[in-house]
Each structure stands twice: as C-alpha cells, then as structure tokens.
Amino acid sequence: MKSKFHPDKNGYFGQFGGAFIPELLHPNVKELEDNYIQIIESKEFQDEYKSLLKDFVGRPTPLYLAKTLSEKYGAHIYLKREDLCHTGAHKVNNTVGQILIAKKLGKTKIIAETGAGQHGVATATVCALMGLDCTVFMGEKDIVRQAPNVARMKMLGAKIVPATSGSKTLKDATNEAIRYWIQNPETFYLIGSVVGPHPHPDMVARLQATISEEMKWQLKEKTGKEDPDTIIACVGGGSNAAGAFYHYFDDEDVELIAVEAAGLGVNSGESAATSQLGEVGIIHGSKTILMQDDYGQIVEPYSISAGLDYPGVGPLHAYLYESGRAKFMNATDKEALAAGFELTKLEGIIPALETAHALAVLPKIDFKKDQVVVINLSGRGDKDLETFIQYLED
Amino acid sequence: MNSIQKIFEQKDQNLLSIYFTCGYPELNDTNKVIKALEANNVDFIEVGLPYSDPLADGPTIQDSSQQALKNGINLDVVFEQLMEIKDTNKTPLVLMGYLNQMLKYGEDKFCKKVIECGIDTLIIPDLPMVEFENHYQELFNKYGLTNVFLITPHTSKERIHKIDNYTNAFIYVVASASITGAKGEISNQQIAYFERIKALNLKSKLIIGFGISDHKTFSTACSYANGAIIGSAFIKSIKQSGVSGIEPFISGIR
User: Catalytic site residue B46?
Assistant: First the structure.
C-alpha cells in the first residue's frame, strides 16, 4: 500500500526530503538507495530482524493502560512501553535493522551520531553483538549531560569522538559524523533518526514502524479496535514519532500529535520547537523545516533534553506538519520536568526527558470521555537522573 | 562565453586559483584580499560565502567562516562589497557557498544579485546533479550562470561524462576522499586517479582542489590538470600574516 506519506522516487515527502549531499557521498547513498527496500523486504532479513527484536530487544513491548494518569486526565491513556526495550529506548529497533543492512552490504566499520546517547548506546550494542567496529560522534555538551550513556558506550567498545563545533550538541555531532563519512566512504553511517539524505529517513521510519504495527493488534486486544483516537509522541528528529504514526498515516480518524521541545519558551530565543520557529531549509542533506536566520545560517537550538535539541525535523514530519496531518504541540523544559515527575509518582515509571515532553501536553488537551490515547513512551529516564535530581532538591 | 572560459582562452596550464572566506580576518578585508590576489596575478578567485554548518569543509575553513559570521558578514554585505569592486576588478570571481544560503535568500534574487556583481560561475558543494537537473538547471540558464560540479575518486565514469556535458567553466577535481584542508604530500594513489581522469579526454578543463597547499602539491596537481585551487593553506596564511602576507604566499606557490 502506497501512502502519500511515503517518499517518491527522489526521496521527497511533498516538497521535503531529497538528498543534498556532496559528490563524495553519492556512491554510498546510491548503494543504500538501490538496496535498502529489497533487503528489508527479503525473507532472510525479516526472519533475522524479527528474531532479534523478539529475543534480543524484548519485543513486543507492552501497551500499558496507565490507570491513574487516565483518571487524572479523563481519557483512556495507554503507554507504548518502548522504555522497556533493551538499552532503554526505541532507538534499538532501528539499529538492529540497520546493522543487518550494513552486514548485508559487507560493511565492517560503523559510525553514528548521538544526542542523548540512546542511539549511541543502541549502535554500540548492535556493533558489539555483531563484532563490528563502532565510532560514535557526540557533542561535547551532551557528553557532560548524558554521562551514564557515555560510560555504557565505552563499555560496549565504542570509540567516542567529541564534536566541539557550533553548539556542541546533536547537530554538530551529525556534522562531524557526515564529515568523517566523507573522508571514510567505506564506513556505514548508521543514522539515528528519520533525518539525513534519502533514503535514510524512509529506512529509519520503516525500521521503527514495528511500534505502530504492534500497537494495532495490542489495541484490538485491549479495546476491540485497532485504532486509537489519538497518538502522542515527542519529536526531535522524529524517529519514535515516525514509528508510532507509521501504520496510521492514512487513517485520518486517528489524531497524530507531535510534541517539540520549547526549551525556555517558544519565543524565548532558547528553544528547539522547529515547526514554530523554522522555515524551509536544508540540513544534513535533507530539505525540511529548519531553524535559521534571515541569511540561511542555522540557529543553535536549545532544550534541556539532549535528544530533542535539534534545529530541524525529519522531512516526513515537515510534511506531516505542512499538510496538517499531524498536530504539532510543544512543551517547555519546566513542563517536561513536571510531567516526568508526575509519571514517576502516579505510575511508577521514570521516563526519559525526551519522552517527558510528550507527557507534558496532557494538561493542555481537552479530552472527550472515553477517548483512547496512546503515548509513545520512547525511553526510560535512567540517563537523566542527574538532571531530575537537581530539580527534586529544588 | 563566461568569464572562466575567457581565462582558459588565454592560458590553460598552471592556473592558480585561491579560495578565501569573505569578511575574514576582518569584515572589510574581502576586497583587500581580492585586490591583493589580483595584483599577484592569481588566475581566478573563489569567493567563499561563510556558512554556519559547512559539511564539506575542514577545521580551517570552518573556523574562518565562524569568525567572518561573528564579524557581521552576511549575503547582503557580501554583495555590497563585491559591487564596490565590480568595475575595477578584472580577475574572474567564482562564488562558493552552500545551497541553503541561496534557498533562504530567494533563488531568483540570489542569481540576479550574483550576475549584478559581475559573477557568472557558482560552486555549491551540496547541490547534487539530480537536484541540479530537476530544479536548478533552468534557473541558472535563465540568468546565464554556470555551475561547477565536483568529481571525486569515487565518481563513476558515466557520471563524469555527464558532468562534462553540464559544465561551461571547469570540472573541480577533488583530490582525495576528504573535506577541505591540507594533507601534505600527494600520494601515488592520488596520482593514479589524476591520470585516470586525464585519460578520459574530457572536453572540460580540469582544476584540482582539496589538499593543495604549497609549491610542490600545486605543481604536481598542475601536471595532471589545467590548474589547482588552494584554500585552507591560504586561510592559514592570512590568519597569521594578514593581507600583507599574500604576496610572499603566492610567490611561494609559484
């Protein structure tokens, strides 16, 4: 089934997407473009991917009815428990798939960028599993604020390269990963979100689609209907949202809500709410919505959450926004922290700071009685304890 | 015939091109640098538009771009500066920038301004051939602009021949799988690649760039192509010695 939210042959979702890459990357990107669909759709890949998702990642992840939260907000709120995936977030769904693609293409050296460190950990994990060489680029600022994940990556045998340019966060880590890739074209760039040149956004969305595939039968079991009324997910680059929305794109009755990080406030000058602050632009090889100044210089974003601290959004999400298919909301640092504490106290689950942004819009929505809502609980909060504790003491 | 083709009419060996970053080291150094390069008989000049996130550039050009942006450079200032020397400057200028700068400025407005400044050749490292064909070829033709394509050690023969047909100025031969910046020596592997390109007998002129930094690498490059471009090494030199260091730098290359 071809959806209008799948890319065309040049990798465009509406006006967004494409592959704006220096000539040196052309052979790599072309090789992937020519092979990824065929590989993903092959029985060999599917068997191995599904088996690893089940026995290594721990899928299916539960769909949990959060009773206290539901009572408080007057809706049936289900949590899709991606936080229970091995390594602690949805990121591993993608890395398990991409490492199989890399192996199929005969690649032995893997590079990745990371913001919160979840993608870095998930990449280092599958590289350890497959015995492949792993280098992770991470912003210097993020290395400090996500120290537990840095330690995990090191323990898993990955080499960490600090990105010291720009804002020293996810954008800069991605720049450095791409520069390394240009200089080492034999490496496989295992990208962590639905960003980058075509076919990366589509490939990552397909690999995260397992989230909504499971949601369908789990909801059917629990509510009698495959479709919820609303799905809520946080968006930095947008991979967990892409996965949670994927099988519902063409189901217009299902409301899709993407939540961006507003930092200190959308108009504070310290924000990462790309859809509200950005305009059409090119970042990391993709035409999308981008935070930039009047002359096209990329603006440094800000969010308390390293995983959402990104001045762009994947081209699929730019199209979901422009077409109105998804509703874009946002949450400030403060609102996200409060939502994180709330989930912890009410449901006994400490969410990642990224995920806390998705939870933070609950008080802003006027739910109908019996509205079925799924929140994609993309990751767990162990890596953010230091930040949470600072505010606990306040 | 565009400005670069005219240069090739007069000379087609040992062409020296210099890349510099606009507004660096000081905001108003743009024209001082161009004048000094012209006085030192550089054959054509690559005018670099500073960008916040230059993916194809190494640390030297990244740093100069950051500094230039801090100095207050932007596209409007660049165009103003270039208009000032339009009538006196006789050395062809090639504008090098990233696609997002053009996109945000307005593609038509950008092309119009470039032509007004007397420039007819662009290098946009993140504009791939398929996007050029689908979205930019017509626009550039309308304004009489030529786009320079880059080829690399990994560009296929078919692609090189296609690029050969699209180019009115020259083919930019990227010397190795790298971002900009000096590498020291030119390896035997690189020479094999230069020989392979030369043997294709392309109709376009060939200019080698990336990693060309001194007399030795320049003259090696020139024995396989029509000329070479020096960027990062020049930026390092003006960072250290300023505009007055341009004369000794250029005479050291030749």
Answer: yes
Q: Using an 8 Å Cβ cutoff, are A80 and A61 in contact?
A: yes
In chain A, which residues have their Cβ closer than 8 Å to the Cβ of B149?
Answer: 23
Minimum Cα–Cα distance from B124: chain A residue: A22
- Catalytic option among B12, B26, B53, B57: B57
- Yes or no, beta carbons of B51 and A297 under 8 Å apart: yes
Q: Which residues are CB-neighbours of B240 under 8 A, at least 6 positions away?
A: none
Q: Does residue A200 sit in helix, strand or coil?
A: helix
Q: In the CATH scheme, what is the homologous superfamily, with its name and number, of domain B13-253? A: Aldolase class I (3.20.20.70)
Q: Which of B58, B126, B131 has the CB atom closest to A22's CB atom?
A: B126
Check A20 against B53: CB less than 8 A apart: no
Tell whether ipTM is more than 0.85: yes
Domain extents in chain B: 13-253
A269: left (phi over 0), alpha (psi -120 to 50) or beta: left
Q: List the domains of chain A with CATH numbers.
A: 24-53+91-204 (3.40.50.1100), 58-88+208-393 (3.40.50.1100)
Residue-level length of chain A: 394
The reply to whether the predicted model has a pTM over 0.95 is: yes
pLDDT digits 0-9 by tens, A226-276: 999 999 999 999 999 999 999 999 999 999 999 999 999 999 999 999 999
